[in-house]
Amino acid sequence: YLAIAALLLIGIVWYAKLISANPKGLKVLIHVVSNIKKDDGPPCVAFDIAYASLVVGNQVELLFDSEAAWNLKRTEPDGKSDFDRYEVPADLKQLVIAQLKEKDLLSVKDFGGFLELLSKKGALISVNGTWNVLTSVEKELKGKTKMSSYVNPLTLKEMVEHLNLAERYYQY
After folding, report:
1. Cis peptide bond N-terminal to 77, omega within 30
2. How far apart are CA 152 and CA 80, in angstroms?
3. For all residues of the chain together, what is the average pLDDT?
4. 15 burial type by CB count under 10 A (0-12 exposed, 13-18 middle, 19+ buried)
5. Helix crossing, 41-55 with 111-120: angle to 10°?
6. What is the rounded distance in angstroms from the CA atom of residue 61 to the CA atom of residue 119?
7. Positive or negative CA dihedral for 11, 15, 18, 20?
8. What is the CA radius of gyration of the chain?
9. Closest CA to 53 of 115, 149, 121
């Protein structure tokens, strides 16, 4: 009986480690490439899909690339990004809350706050670091001097790895 108990205990420990190493839910990558100043629809949908994906238990990454990467840049003198300057419409909040039964969106005023909420709920917020250097947003690939602390700049190799690991891919 002792050997069976030991094997059972080892099996339980192994299974617990397996579960903790592979959380439930799909790995969802949302590739945001649209500039909110030119067309606010695609980024709005991207944020909503990210929020809904988190609510249903998925692992979410928002990867800002191309023109959307610009929207993360904090500018002087107010230190705001483009997302901080776009209000989340009240009717959108009500529609999302009614569908997902999550009320924390009520406290969000703008898309910068929405992005911060997504980060706090577990979404990984990434940006193309190469684009940031190319467009002089940052001086280094991993630079974060003009972005929120929760933004993770990626090298090209890291971007490809993140894209390849995604089980679901959406582009907005």
Report:
1. yes
2. 18
3. 91
4. exposed
5. 20
6. 9
7. negative
8. 19
9. 121
Cβ–Cβ < 8 Å for 45, 172: yes
Coil vs helix vs strand at 35: coil
Distances (CA, A) of 4 to 14, 18, 58, 111, 164: 15, 21, 36, 55, 41
Q: Copy the structure tokens of residue 99.
A: 């569908």
Which helix (H) or strand (E) element contains residue 147? none
Q: Over the stretch 47-63, which tens digit does the pLDDT of each residue have?
A: 999 999 999 999 999 99
pLDDT class of 19 with cuts at 50, 70, 90: very low
CA dihedral sign, ordered 112, 39, 52, 70? negative
Token reading at 94: 């009500």
Which residues share a beta bridge with 154? 128
Q: Are 119 and 147 in contact (CB under 8 A)?
A: no
Task: Tell me the CB-side half-sphere exposure of residue 132, using CA atoms within 13 A.
Answer: 28
